[in-house]
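Hi Y.,

Following your request, here is the sequence exactly as I used it, all 298 residues.
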Amino acid sequence: MVETERKARIKRTVLTVSFFCCTGLALIQCSRDRSDDSLANGPPAHFPTEFAPSLSPDRSQIIYAAVDTVVPSNSGIYRAEINLPIRRQLLTVPGISSPTIAPDNNRIAYLVDGKIQYYLVAEDSGYASAVQNQFESIEYIDDSTLIAFAGNSLSRVKEASDSVEVFLSAQYPTIISEDSVLFLRQRTVTVASIELTNLRTRESSILALVEVAMDARGLSLSSNGQWLVYTQLDQGERYVYSVDLKAPTPTHRRLVRCYSDEALIVEENLIVFTGNNGLFFETDYFGSNPTLYGVVKI
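Below is the corresponding structure, written out as tokens. Let me know if you'd prefer a different format.
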């Protein structure tokens, strides 16, 4: 079933590429036979570097940040539909990080120099939060509440009241559902745990232990709870790892080298990460045949 859906998605992408090429807009489509060696070439100057992908709560699109030092107007917030992943720029913003979209698919929050900003897609307007705290990351948990991370603490930030409430000692969170958050917690000098906490009951469970304390980033959990994906440093270089949590003996697999902290499961058996040319690439839970993700406008 998953393979059939992916073939259908590829067919739709090819048809879209053909349409845009006929209308005079050149596009690059993902090549399904590219190997990891093909990531060695540097990025064209007009391609922004893509990072910080965030999956919408309904799993229909990803919102992400991009930076382009050659063409600054390319820097900002982008969106790509999961079923037809053509990149579309929503907003030009320099210095952006950690974009996240609310369940209503209209409200986007992001950080500039660590401070919260808001953008309304339908209204094409935005404003700065009155909260003066600086954060490392933010993520919507409902239409009016963000989970924000700074230092060793997670906080709830209410948009309407601009209130900040610290509620958990943890790091590098990822929202799984309205009442669940995945995060990293230091256990010893050399080991950290990846845990899942219910925000209503405050009960936590350890999903995995990772060596080399606090190097893990970009935590992502599959919708069925079976696969955990994250990135981690190995001899100074960052790689994507996967773990089958339901295997009799869960094994941490090193998949492919990546060039930002984040790796994201966007649909079953499909991981998106930043390749060394600055663009998003995709692979599966076993690191097979990394290829360019979706379609890139030139």
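Residues 1-45 have pLDDT under 50 and may be disordered.

Thanks again,
Q.
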